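Progress against Task 2.4 (sequence-to-structure conversion) is shown through the following example record, which the project officer requested during the mid-term review.
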Amino acid sequence: MKLAIIQTNPEFGKVKSNVEAALDQMVQLKADLYVLPELFNTGYNFAEAKEVQVLAEKTEGTTFQAIYKFCREWNCFAAYGFAEQAESLFNSSALVGPNGLVGLYRKVHLFDRENLFFAPGDLEFPVFDLPFGKVGMMICFDWFYPESARTLALKGAELILHPANLVLPHCPDAMVTRCLENRVFAATANRVGVEERRWLKLTYIGMSEIVSPKGEILTRLSGDKAESAVVEIDLSLARNKKLNQFNDLLAGRREEAYKT
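Structure tokens generated for the chain above:
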């Protein structure tokens, strides 16, 4: 399969133009699956709860319709982050294909001021069957908790789709470890740029990447440009959890020793 990461530079609150800019990047390269950043359509740096309420969308809102149209025309799949309007407000990611919505994930580990605006995710860590393999989703700060990627691996995910708006510097290198310890692929799609709103200024680090089950960085983007990349991968490689004759990473877990 061909896997693409789309690194964008959205302008806060400009949903229509942000989605159009992302689609303009996507049409430049052919892929089976595209991964876009967290909150790629709205921007991230909310000043107050009212802004989230205004910008949040239903699962099949206008952003979904635009991405679905692209997936239908290009016969592909895409994962993207958005503010979801449901029984609560969630920082969510949707997986969309040529036949519509495949699945949804709601961010479990909220970062910093997200706790003022969003409810913690209540869909656990889902894994979805696609024509080319099994994919799971997590969002940005979830990477900081090893349990996130490990849970997806235990559920059979061969590829982790990881929309992000990273401001801490550690994630790109840390995802190498996440892939190594779980023997999975991961696609982290981050954004770039600066959002300065009222008293809070956030600078995003870019460096979107695709990492192999052996911890190889197959592609890593710049820290300051809106750009994209596509890599051809074989998800079946993530089904082999053996390090050697005696060590299978998942089968060798000793759950009885992990109790606290």
